[in-house]
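Troubleshooting: if your tokenizer reports a length mismatch, compare your output against this known-good record of 542 residues.
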Amino acid sequence: MSRPSDHIDSAPPRDEDPNVVQPKLGPLGWVRWAWRQLTSMRTALFLLLLLAIAAVPGSLFPQRGADPSGVTKYFSDNPQLAPVLDKFQLFDVYTSFWFSAIYLLLFASLIGCIIPRTAHHARALRARPPKTPVRLTRMSGFQSRILPAELRDDAPNPIESARQILRRSRYRVSLYQDARSTSVSAERGYLRETGNLVFHIALLGVLVAVGIGGGFGYTGQKVVVVGQSFVNSLPSYNSFNPGRFFSDGSLEPFSIRVDSLDVAYETKNPNAVGTPLDYTAKVTTTGPGDSSGPATIKVNDPLAIGGTNVYLLGNGYAPTITVKDPQGKIVFSDSVPFIAQDARLTSLGWVKVPDGLREQVGMIGFFYPTVGKSDTAAGALTSTFPGLDDPVLSLNVYAGDLGVDNGVPQSVYSLNTDKMTQLAGPGTKTKALQLKPGQTVELPNGLGTISLGDVKRYASLDVHHDPAQVWVLLFAVLILGGLLTSLFVPRRRIWVKAVENPDGSLTLEYAGLARGEDPNLLAAVSAVADEHTALLTRQPTN
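Known-good structure output:
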């Protein structure tokens, strides 16, 4: 069976030359084609969705900018996987090359969408409403009314009265006339497109504001022991992540002293014993202007000072450890923050004594706020409650080269034991040293003594400076307002036409047209027709 002549695989008609070749796109043509594809609304929506998907790893993996200690812990817990993830910048998602590429493409796409649409909308605002169609019977809600000849003399001008009715309803109107009829064309709902443009411009504003905030802002983390102070300067931070355009001069001078850290735990519900109920850090601030004085910081209630927000991220214990040499001279004394390892605040810490003893000494400590026996490992200690009810400090002791004399910076939250010999703890003949507050024990090999003083709490503070956060909020409000406007403001046209009849009467025609969904269009046309007819016949509306 032969194919129809218009089938896609059929031979070309005889009057067409099969050797005709369409012109190929040159380099400029391909650039124009690519630009049109990039600036289409479909591409912009796709890139917006892709940006949202690309942000997901930022919530799955700890980020160096917000949780550097979490990144360090992830590397220690996943030594094989973490370096692979790091090559794909999954610990720096929001500054990665692939996230930035999507961000910039979306930026360009939005600009390419907004500029021509704004120009077109500006022209539409200045243009007259479209000419009245010849056949209104094809339009939505069409209806006609007859104005008898005997009523025309006393009735107001039909088209002028229709024009006034539509203008009172906030329509833009224009009069048209042909050989047989006079009509008024009315249009409203331009605010719908305005809201659409505001939505996209505000979305672009959010992207710009986030970029500026990320470039000129900074985040820093600091562990502050109760009774100690923190000064907003680079050397004071435990970790600091500046923006690309950050300068030291943007650090406002202020200080925060942590006076106390009040913690409440659940004790009555047997199924939730130890669950934290509240964390409140009471601090004293010294800063620019009137920002000095007492203040509080809670988990969801940051402190605003010096153009920054200071958040309470976490807390833990800082046992006060004192090390003396064999002659009783103090060679080390400090409240050492220990990092919580579980919900019961079983904590891990590191103590380094580089000077004052016969050898350099390093200790890996485990602190148990309320000591108890582990159910999983025979003889192992654990914490049974996060409160400070029965604290015990256990220390594994090492002696040798700490590696602090080679000029390479070391983290205070690790201990390199490659060039050290373990003197006490598992794997040696000497048990790990165990101390309770107020106790003193001998260090192995006659190196001296170590004692445990009071146990203080510490607050983990996150200092965040974002100069564009007010603009982000403003643009977010505009996005919501523009979206609601574009969704709920109808765009419609209504026409009223007066046609002369041979008998002297007048046929009044009413019709409308909606741009998009408008369930109230028919009702709007009927309302205009009823009001107009009542005005012309001087009959009250229902």
